Amino acid sequence: MSDLIARLRGEFDSIWVPPDTYLLDAGLSAEGLIAQVRLGLAALLLLFPAVNAVVEASMTGQTRVGGRSATSSETTGGPSSRCSRACST
Length: 89
Description:
With about 90 residues, the chain is mainly alpha-helical. Helices cover about 75% and strands about 10% of the residues.
């Protein structure tokens, strides 16, 4: 059993080479830059739906809240066209 363990350790030592210190330093310094770039791209991509909602609301006069379309009178508390038709009869 100990012979098997010694042989496995010998195989592992021939495969595993400790990392180079220069490569470790380069990886550590680049990791922060890459994280900042990823964060910036994610923030930029998250702005698209918000800008689209604002542009759509200004062009159509309707906003989408939770997937439901609401007119400006519904959002300000005024009577909606659906209520005025139903309430007038």
